[in-house]
Write a structure and sequence with these properties.
Layout lengths: L8 E8 L2 E7 L9 H8 L9 E7 L15 E7 L9 H13 L6 E7 L2 E7 L11 E7 L9 E4 L2 E9 L3 E6 L14 E3 L9 E9 L2 E8 L3 E3 L3 H14 L4 H4 L3 E7 L2 E7 L4 E6 L2 E8 L1 H5 L4
Parallel strand pairs: 2-3, 4-5, 10-12, 13-15
Antiparallel strand pairs: 1-2, 1-18, 3-4, 5-6, 6-7, 7-17, 8-9, 8-11, 9-10, 12-13, 13-14, 15-16, 16-17
This protein binds the ligand N[C@@H](CCC[C@H](N)C(=O)O)C(=O)O.
The ligand N[C@@H](CCC[C@H](N)C(=O)O)C(=O)O binds next to α2 and α3.
């Protein structure tokens, strides 16, 4: 890792509906976190532990986001726990925005965050009177449903039809009878036909809980089963709406789905112009400094 390690490296730990992240402030873009380093930081036994890592860097200071600097001061450099890069992380962007406000780097209210999937507009509510952190709402942009028909998701010898939904990152959404049908999800579900997801895919298993109310489990590309996935919840809500015969672009009315995940609840609203908004909690739970000797021993 190329980093200023002499005095250790500050980090924080945060989560959104128990999708948890190592947060590394790097405002001036001085860190070069390779995949092996990210994987060690996200390791739950040999590192800090997290489903992913959020590097907090000024857009102007990172070549991946410099073109967005005029629209968003801060860039969420998101990595999966295996060190791979993903285009977007919905829970991550809520936690990221919450961190910016808590650290005094942004004011509560509306703010823009640059991501690899483009700029996302976020609203961070102030804390409630009892100190409970306010909810964070993200405009996740439009869901794309590129097809093709006939996509399948399989676990062991069970196979389900699935819907291809892109929320900036790829998802396969399968409606099942029971969330237990997905098994232990220690390994990635298979998808067919071959070639639909050349860069891998996040797979959601969904059951109905009531009118416009679903529950899901997810196996995330690059992180395994997680207790929540924001882009996944958006993909599920849009797939559920279409299955229910609802398309806000046709009805002219917004539709809202409640999505229960093992780690909490997210509310997803889709608008007639195609925008999808996600609302849910975000929390910072700890902050500290990485040991300089440990840091120095990390892989390049
Ligand atoms: N947990 C995230 C999604 C993170 C990225 C995903 N694993 C991928 O590789 O696309 C979320 O909350 O959206």
């Amino acid at each position: 890792m190329s980093a200023p390690t002499g005095t250790g490296l500050p980090f924080l730990k945060g989560h959104g509906t128990q999708n948890d992240f190592v947060i590394v402030p790097d405002p001036d873009g001085r860190l070069d976190l390779g995949p092996a380093t990210v994987a060690r930081l996200c390791d739950r036994r040999a590192g800090i532990g997290g489903d992913g890592l959020l590097r907090v860097v000024r857009s102007a200071a990172d070549p991946a986001a410099a073109h967005l600097a005029g629209e968003a001061e801060w860039f969420m450099d998101y990595r999966n726990s295996d060190g791979s890069i993903a285009e977007m992380c919905g829970n991550g962007v809520r936690v990221f925005a919450h961190y910016l406000v808590q650290a005094g780097l942004a004011k509560p209210g509306a703010l823009a965050v640059a991501t690899r999937a483009g700029v996302r507009q976020v609203r961070v509510a102030g804390p409630a009177a009892d100190g409970t952190p306010g909810e964070v709402t993200v405009d996740m942009g439009r869901a794309l449903l590129p097809g093709p028909d006939g996509i399948e998701v399989a676990v062991d010898d069970r196979v389900w039809p699935a819907r291809n939904v892109n929320m900036g990152n790829p998802h396969a959404v399968a409606f099942v009878d029971s969330l237990d049908d997905a098994g232990n999800l220690y390994t990635a579900p298979r998808t067919a036909p071959e070639g639909v997801y050349p860069d891998g895919v996040n797979v959601e298993f969904v059951v109905d809980r009531g009118p416009r109310h679903v529950a899901m489990r997810v196996h995330e590309r690059g992180s395994g089963e997680t207790r929540s996935c924001g882009t996944g919840a958006c993909a599920v809500a849009v797939a559920a709406a279409r299955r229910d015969g609802i398309d806000p672009a046709v009805t002219g009315e917004a539709v809202s789905y409640t999505v229960d995940l093992p780690g909490g609840r997210l509310v997803i609203e889709e608008f007639p112009d195609g925008r999808v908004e996600m609302t849910g909690p975000a929390e910072i739970v700890a902050s500290g400094t990485l040991d300089p000797a440990w840091l120095a021993g990390l892989p390049a």
